[in-house]
Amino acid sequence: MSSADPLPHQHLWHLANQQLIARAISEFVYEQELVTHKSESNHSRSSHSGRNSSEKSNSGKSHYQVTLGDAIYQFNAKPTLWGLLVIEPTSLTRDEESATDALQFCLDLKVALSVDEITFGNWLEDVQNTLYNEFQRLQKLAHYDAHELLRLDEPQLQGLLDAHPKIIANRGRLSWGASDNEQFSPESLQSFQLEFLAAHKSILTTGHLDTLDNRQLIGSMIQDSDYLALAEKLDAAIADTEYHAEDFALIPCHPWQLQHHIRPQFQWAFQQQTLIQLGQAGDCYQPQQSIRTLSNITRPEQFDVKLAITILNTSCYRGVPEKFIAAGHHISHWLHTLTHSDSLFSERHLRILEEPAGYYVSHQYQNKVTGSPYRYHEMLGCIWRQSAQAKQDHDDESHMLLSALLQKDLNGNALIKALIESSELTTTEWLQRLFSVMSIPLYHLLVKYGVGVIAHGQNVVVYFKQSVPYAIAIKDFHGDLRLLDTELPEQSALAPEAKNLLTKLPKEHLVHDLLTGHFISVYRFLSPLVAEQTEVSEASFYLLLAKQIDAYQQSQPQYAERFQWFDLFRPQVERICLNNVRFDIGYQDNAERPLPKLGSDLTNPIYLGLKALQATQHHNSETTIGVDAPNSALQP
User: Of the residues 200, 364, 449, 576, which has the fewest C-beta atoms closer than 10 A?
Assistant: First the structure.
């Protein structure tokens, strides 16, 4: 597809509906809420294939059906090693007619799952918002093929990416209307200025590196002339009060948040003049895929900012909690020092998008309400984070979110395929490089330092040289990082105030931050995509990954006991379920953010990769030294 040949709008609306239906069936089957059966009848249809539906296609797809109440849905799909069905959206039918109505599907689903009607009505709103916002994205995506997408700057590319693949209503943004999405959503591809407030230290919690102060932080967002203008507004506002300018700090605020929550909910602070509105100013910012994190478009090398936006999107309200503000900067700075002091990290170019400062304004009345909904405690805050551009070490590097590797253009061509073709490496060589610079450093961080990070597609930036994976950067440490509950000597340099506020987990739980947060969240979608688009099968994908993990373990014998603690080769792993949690808890307020549920265990594809590796080693040992090769030759 080229920019001269976009698809008609009705086709894109149907595609948005088909993709949501496909994702819903796939995820509810994965979460064991629905059961599918292979179908031999001639009902499945596809715009890409003229095969009779009773035949298995060359791509390995079979025909399935699922019954939802009185309706029968049929489709082409391929099962994966993670127990996931990769469904061809355009093959979907409902009672032998093309299935292009996701809302009718939802009504059919309600009957099958027996969901509470109040909860289901709210979920239907979530789904409708998602469909509308996805339709807007597809209209823009239609103008680019995979190679053209790779040439976009990173903020533009982020606006065109698919949202969370695990969440069905993944663009719901409850509380936002059409005009809000047109101004502030990633797919709007729009930039805007931020609002600035002055907050008195009596209601302000701050934390930052000693090398930074408020003037420097705000200076990364506005020019000197703008800063002086805001300072003059502050002086004028407090001229007839007992306050002094040095007792205030400037803090940015999202324009939508100011109008909808801060002005009404913090009016007591405005009246006390402990919070003063100074107006819009400074550089222009564009939302990243995570919505509340914004990229500086005027000066891309300056900090990104993460701002509170009280909208319910995917699993929770997107605020900024106070918990990590005062000491959060110590966490990312410690990790940054490790990337230089640890030889494995430096050899594999691991980078940290540091979060050197955070501000939080408390609501003194909500703070006194025991069990108040968490969203009221996360309404006004900012975290400054190094930009991915600032961490780009060489002029010949490019970078993108890890989630971009899952992206396809509307011709069905994946960005990962375009990258591999441009790299002039084989798919095997390219994947080996990816695993080497990404999965092994994340595993090393867990094994040596007892640190678990949630390295899903939005929390990892991949850097490339000539389309070859060269490095990664990890980010988002305010809540997405945990420590082993047994203190390790390698943690001694972490500031005590940071160590004390981090969640501590036993080893059997901490390993899930890597297994679930990275391997399942990323690889259960990436490995079937690689198998679909290249010559490397899913089994070969995990054999390559197992080789990398095994080679790492062989090179670090001093951590043999810890490899048992954090066993990536375990035969079974837990199945984490997200979508059915919303049906369980509904849409009412809660004092805490919701937690996922567990399903039955999954067969671990990395374990299958190990078994294949051992079989290969056994075969090679027989070939080299005969059938009496020692058992130790089979061990990783």
Answer: 364
Separation CA 23–CA 527 (nearest Å): 17
Which residue, chain included where needed, has tokens 């489709």? 75
Residue in the block written with tokens 């968490």? 374
CA neighbor of 533 nearest in space, from 403, 437, 411: 411
Whether 77 contacts 62, CB under 8 Å: yes
Q: Give me the residues paired with residue 307 across strands.
A: 382
- With contact defined as beta carbons under 8 Å apart, do 155 and 295 qualify? yes
Distances (CA, A) of 610 to 193, 543, 575: 51, 6, 20
Buried b (16+ CB within 10 A) or exposed e, 30-39: bbebbebeeb
User: How far does CA 48 lie from the centroid of its chain?
Assistant: 30
| The residue to which tokens 């990243």 are assigned | 288
pLDDT at residue 45 in the model: 55
Q: What angle do CA 593, 401, 519 make, to 5 degrees?
A: 65
CA distance 610 to 419: 27
Which long-range contacts link 238-245 to residues 24+ away (Cβ below 8 Å)? 238/273, 238/276, 241/273, 243/200, 243/273
pTM: 0.93
SS3 of residue 185 by DSSP: coil
The structure tokens listed for 431 are 């994947």
Q: What letter would DSSP give residue 595?
A: -
Helix H, strand E, coil C: the string for 381-445 is: EEEEECCCCCCCCCCCEEEEEHHHHHCECCCCCEHHHHHHHHHCCCHHHHHHHHHHHCHHHHHHH
Distance of CA 127 to the CA centre of its chain: 19
Q: Decide if 171 contacts 243 (C-beta within 8 A).
A: no
Identify the pLDDT of residue 621. 63
Angle between helices 605-625 and 538-555 in degrees, nearest 10: 70
Backbone angles phi, psi at 567, to 5 degrees: -90, 105
| Positions of the chain with pLDDT lower than 70, given as ranges | 1-7, 41-59, 618-619, 621-636
Q: Tokens 């009185």 map to which residue? A: 70
Q: Which residues, including other chains, have CB under 8 Å from residue 302's CB and lie 6 or more apart?
A: 220, 221, 283, 296, 387, 390
Provide the β-strand partners of residue 65: 37, 74
- The distance of Cα 9 from the centroid of its chain, to the nearest Å, equals 28
Residue 224's CB is within 10 A of a number of other CB atoms, namely 9
